[in-house]
Structures are given as C-alpha cells and as structure tokens.
Amino acid sequence: MTAHKLSELGVSNALKSLNSETVSPWVIEDGKLTKLFQFKDFQHAFGFMTMSALYVEKKNHHPEWSNTYNKVKVQLITHDVGGVSEKDFDLAKRMDRFAG
Amino acid sequence: MTAHKLSELGVSNALKSLNSETVSPWVIEDGKLTKLFQFKDFQHAFGFMTMSALYVEKKNHHPEWSNTYNKVKVQLITHDVGGVSEKDFDLAKRMDRFAG
C-alpha cells in the first residue's frame, strides 16, 4: 500500500479513533506516533515485541522502539513520506491488540 | 552471583579485555556499558535481540536497549549496585558472541 502523509487534522482524527479503543493513549511526540507500553515483566514485554516484530517484518514497516525491563516505548513514523501515515496508525492498532 | 560495583580502574581494565575481542568497542556512556550494534537488516537485529532476551531472562539481568531497523543500542548497568559490575561485562561478552 502506498503511504500518504496525514494532515494535522487527519492525524488528530485518527488519534481520536485509535485512542477510543485503548486505555493509555497514543500521542504525537517528536512528530512520531508514540506510546509507552507497560507490562507485568520482561517476559511479557519481550513477548509483545516478538509478536510485533513478525508483523512489522511482513509489512516491511518497522518501529523505533526501546525496552527497559517491563516497559516498551514505541515511536512510529513513515520515513518515505516524512511524517505520520495510515501505515503508522495501522501498526499502532495492531500493537495495541498484541499488547492486550 | 552477587554483583559488585567496579572501580574506575576495574572498569577500564575490563573494557580493555572486552574490546580486545571485538571490532567495534564498548564504551561508558551515561555511566552505563554501551554499544551500538549494526546488522544487515531488521531480521538479523531482532534475531540478536531474541537470543539476548532468552539469556538475560535466565540470568535475571536485563539490558536497556533500543532498536531502529538494523541498529540495536545496548546500555548495561547493575541497578542494585548503582554502577557497572561484572554482570554487565559478562552480558556484554555474550552479546558480542550473539551478534557475531
């Protein structure tokens, strides 16, 4: 699928829709779709990362993410379009499911 | 194993020994034993992370790390002792092998 950079309004609307289904919200930080996931322990955090890794590799759309024990910070951006695109919102939704 | 915070000299000596076996060096950054690993692609980067994850979970000594596509930045510290310990150097050595 071809990615398009979303407008500010587009991002705002997509964020509302995305966050309506989750407890802790995604936000825009450094121009990237960002969320700090918190798990029970490292096993659960890395299990989430592994499920996500298989998905992002298949989609060829990779996150920037960091992990410290039970925490995983995820930042999504579509470098090809220089901003946040539908691809990032699709991945965010999937990651919420993988975490849930 | 009980961890002990290494002295500056201890860290310096352990770094020399560690880096004698690797191409790209470990350094001390923000008081943590730090290395930026670079791989061929995401598959190889995440493969490295998966091997490391199984090891660190078994040892109950976890890294702070971040990944962007083919790059993995690792930072090691022993929070119990408020500094770098033998545990961090043991893990660093293992991670070099997993990456190699």
TrEMBL record, chains A, B:
The GO terms this record gives for MF are:
4-alpha-hydroxytetrahydrobiopterin dehydratase activity
Enzyme class, one word? lyase
Q: Which UniProt keywords apply?
A: Lyase
Lyase listed as a keyword: yes
Q: Upper taxonomic classification of the species?
A: Bacteria, Pseudomonadati, Pseudomonadota, Gammaproteobacteria, Oceanospirillales
The protein's superkingdom reads Bacteria
* Protein name per Swiss-Prot or TrEMBL: Putative pterin-4-alpha-carbinolamine dehydratase
What InterPro entries would the database entry show? PCD_sf, Pterin_deHydtase
As its record notes, the protein acts as a catalyst of: (4aS,6R)-4a-hydroxy-L-erythro-5,6,7,8-tetrahydrobiopterin = (6R)-L-erythro-6,7-dihydrobiopterin + H2O
Q: Which family does it belong to?
A: Belongs to the pterin-4-alpha-carbinolamine dehydratase family.
Q: What is its EC number?
A: 4.2.1.96
TM stretches of this protein? none
Q: Which organism is it from?
A: Marinomonas arenicola
Question: Which CDD domains does the record cross-reference, listed alphabetically?
Answer: PCD_DCoH_subfamily_b
Gene3D superfamilies in alphabetical order: Transcriptional coactivator/pterin dehydratase
